[in-house]
């Protein structure tokens, strides 16, 4: 199986399966002398880990990260950084009934069509369990970027119900539950998720991620565009089905006069009067906030019976048992933040390599 590595100058290779003994990654390209240890990484993994509320999968994983190489006395050495997270609460027996069945919406059929084999235990490599190591790699990226680049991630829509943007509070998003930035919206979403979970179905969601403090000049024209790499990174997250940068699809409804981000002179360069382009112009960062939204499809593992076929070609009905998120978007904000950090760290190093 190829294509398990992400990035160019800053890159990571992830390994492991949902129900294997462990998952992990190897980060390559990190400069020496960057502060890093397990205590720096762990809070970010805790924000993503399962089993933290009734609104997410009840699989209980501590997600304790172990750094196996590339760090000495709290600083990176420049060597590859290997990290491991043990799986401690896998229940493979939950998947015995679907060993030969193709679950609608899952990668079961496509993995079988490509490889002639699939790990049916929790989806194997296709499982969102793999995203824990992306979060760990994202912390290394954050350390490379430094305190000047700041990240915020929030859930902005569940199903057909958007957040109340007039009540936006980043502190609420980090501490109030569901990564919801509105105290007014949160109880409505909680009630919606409770109803959906009890009905045996699931919901889609939209996550918004913002990176502030990105200097102008990162990215490259044509085939190395910053926004193209961001879009690819976000689409690599399991269940992601759409990405917007800035106004995104909404830009199609604007006129040229409305969409153009006007400028005025400022003490340190141009000051933009709007940010419809999401902090990227011509594939290069403009110095504004980089704004990304990712649409996630509803969780495919549901109790509602769905029509399908099995490996023998027989028509069957499938009902997926086990422990699953009623809305995968609920835990997606830390993952999207991590992938954005990885792209930005990569482009920081690529910019330094080209422009000094």
What does this protein structure show overall?
The protein is an alpha+beta fold and 356 residues long. The chain contains 8 helices and 18 strands. The chain has helices spanning 38-48, 108-115, 131-145, 170-175, 186-199, 226-235, 256-259, 333-355; strands at 5-7, 11-16, 22-28, 65-67, 71-72, 75-76, 81-86, 150-158, 161-162, 205-212, 240-245, 263-266, 269-272, 280-281, 284-285, 290-296, 306-309, 315-318. A hairpin with a 2-residue loop joins β8 and β9. The longest helix is centred in the last third of the chain and has 23 residues, at 333-355.
Keywords summarizing the entry:
356 residues; alpha+beta; five-stranded antiparallel beta sheet; 23% strand
Largest sheet: 5 strands, antiparallel
Average pLDDT value? 92
Radius of gyration: 21 Å
Q: Termini, distance in Å?
A: 36 Å
Structural class: alpha+beta
Q: Which runs of at least 5 residues are low in confidence (pLDDT < 50)?
A: none
How much of the sequence lies in strands comes to: 15-25%
Q: Can you tell me the overall shape?
A: globular
Number of strands: 18
Number of helices: 8
Helix content: 25-40%
Order of helices and strands: EEEHEEEEHHEEHHEHEHEEEEEEEH
Give the strand order of the largest sheet, numbering strands 1, 2, ... along the chain. Answer: 1-2-3-7-4
Brief overview:
This protein has 356 residues and is α+β, with helices and mostly antiparallel strands. The chain has eight helices and 18 strands.
